[in-house]
Design a protein that fits this description.
By secondary structure, the protein is an alpha/beta fold. The protein has one domain: Vaccinia Virus protein VP39 (Rossmann fold, 3-Layer(aba) Sandwich). The chain is built from six helices and eight strands, in the order ααβαββαβαββββα. Strands 3-4-8-5 form a four-stranded mixed beta sheet, with helices on both faces. Strands 1-2 form a two-stranded parallel sheet. A two-stranded antiparallel sheet has the order 6-7.
Length: 170
């Protein structure tokens, strides 16, 4: 019995969590209903620092940066929408840049990685955090739907009193 227990613990240690099997694809575009809720809270979106031409058709940010224009090297200000690349090593850079920037309001869509340093840092800056029921079905570049391997969190930083109610309905 003791040997089986130790063997079973070893097998569990060797297994990676299901999120470790992520495809590594950073192109997940936010669904319109979440963007609409962000607009309801902030009025407009001045900046999306991690976007693309296709994603901005939904976000409609006044200014947006793509992988080629590298939002991490630019100043961030105003009302920010951020759905950062979820890849390890990249998401941290976007969260750090946001927190270290001066802006009016920000809404961030991220994996609910509550066990990470970057999420903890983001949560400490947040006025509201909403955990949607189920996984968000994001749009892919080919216009099909897909869901990440874990749930998401919508994080609001600012002083809009209706932030929580706008996202809890979505």
């Amino acid at each position: 019995m003791g040997k089986q227990f130790l063997e079973s613990r070893q097998i569990r240690r060797e297994k990676k969590p299901h999120v470790a099997f992520n495809s590594g694809n950073n192109e997940w575009y936010t669904p319109k209903k979440i963007i609409d809720a962000a607009r309801e809270v902030m009025g407009e979106i001045d900046l999306d620092p991690a976007s693309s031409e296709l994603a901005n058709q939904t976000v409609r940010a006044e200014k947006f940066y793509t992988i080629n224009s590298d939002g991490l090297t630019k100043d961030w200000h105003g009302r920010i929408w951020l759905n950062p690349p979820y890849a390890r090593g990249t998401v941290e850079k976007f969260i750090d840049k946001l927190i270290d920037s001066e802006f009016e309001q920000a809404i961030v869509a991220v994996n609910n990685a509550t066990d990470t340093k970057w999420f903890s840092r983001l949560a400490k800056s947040a006025n509201v955090i909403v955990f949607p029921n189920g996984r968000v079905k994001f749009n892919k570049p080919d216009r099909s739907k897909g869901s990440p391997l874990q749930g998401q969190a919508i994080v609001y930083i600012g002083d809009a009193p209706k932030a929580a109610s706008s996202f809890t309905a979505n």
